[in-house]
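Worked Example 4.2. Consider the chain below.
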Amino acid sequence: MNKIKIGIVGYGNIGRGVEQSIKRNDDMELAAVFTRRDPATVSIQTESAAVKHFDEMASMKDEIDVMILCGGSATDLIEQTPMVTKYFNCIDSFDTHARIPEHFANVDKVAKEEKSLTMRYSPGYGDLDISANRDILNVLDAHRKIGVTVTNTGIMIPRKSVVALIGITNEKIEKVKRTCENCSNRFNCEYRRKADGCGGKTIYTR
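Applying the procedure from the previous section yields the following structure tokens:
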């Protein structure tokens, strides 16, 4: 089983508590702890994890799946979370209630600048069978929450309802107008054989 690799920023009481929680979950492992102190002075409980200075964080962007920020809301997280979001998927515990909208807006802005969305891919496209609608809606508890159901053939009710999978990537993706020439299905396209087109929907390329 591939474990979720976790990083911890800040090793005070919250950081130590997060480390103990990771130890109790078999699907996670601590990859590194990042500190503003001298790493040589920080002793952690996980022998396999590294202790690194905060400034070394970006060098591990391909080795950590989720970064958990364990600093204080008053001064640490308001600066650190937007900074760390440039490189990692982040969880923080910001709890200065009056500043939550401001904090969210700052983090959201950075995330949108640094990451791109892939094209939408829905059940029924390519080799993703339409029956996947049922599995996805079950996980989302969609019938109870928003009243959407699925027929035996995979059709969603109400009609026109759509399930879509959208990826978030650190790679920059350029939006390109779809044409017959850049379509991967151009040699087997039913519309093209009829000298027609599929509507020229937008596609995405790296």
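The first strand starts at residue 4 and ends at 9. Residues 176 and 182 are 9 Å apart (CA to CA). Compare this with Example 4.1 before moving on.
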